Amino acid sequence: MIERPLALAALLLAAASVPGLAQTPPKASPAPRALITLEKGGQIVLELFPADAPRHVENFTKLVRRGFYDGLRFHRVEDWVVQAGDPQTKTLPADDDRVGNGGPGYAIKAEFNKRTHERGTLGMARGDDPDSAGSQFYITLKPARGLDGQYTVFGRVVKGMDLADTLKVGDRIASIRIVGK
């Protein structure tokens, strides 16, 4: 009786040692990243969260690949947040009342998730309607837990927070590029 389980165990061990027969778990693919290159120099590296906010990551990636963000300026800078993504900042003066109201011409549905607003959180800005986000994004410079569950978090800064801390209204994005996936 004991011989069969031992024989089966020996057979399984032998099969596992033969190349091609052993099942190796697939490697988890790294999360996609975005590289924001600033006109004044330096890069901010973002890790995106497609598992938590798939439509927001897909939308942001689509806009990046179209070159939508290239040449836009940061239009909102406060002690706790910086914000960009309004296409009007390419041409309008920074103090124009219309700046901060532009978008891609469509909105996407909110994807509130369990991610919290810590220092370096990447979130999608929106109007009063939770489903009004489009292209404007923000990076928190300080924890902003009051935004949790109210705004979609779709990434985080993994390198370059020191640069984010120095941003000023009018600083221009030279380009954003997606790396990975």
Structure notes:
This protein has about 180 residues and is an alpha+beta fold. The protein has a single domain, classed as Beta Barrel (Cyclophilin), CATH 2.40.100.10. It is about 15% helix and about 25% strand. The protein is built from 3 helices and 8 strands; from the N terminus they run αββαβββββαβ. Strands 3-4-6-5-7-2-1-8 form an 8-stranded antiparallel β-sheet. The termini are far apart. Mean pLDDT is about 90; it is low at about 20-25.
Top keywords for this entry?
single chain; 3 helices; 181 residues; 8-stranded antiparallel β-sheet; globular; alpha+beta
| Share in β-strands | 15-25%
Quaternary: single chain
CATH homologous superfamily (4th level) name: Cyclophilin-like
State the name of the first-level CATH class.
Mainly Beta
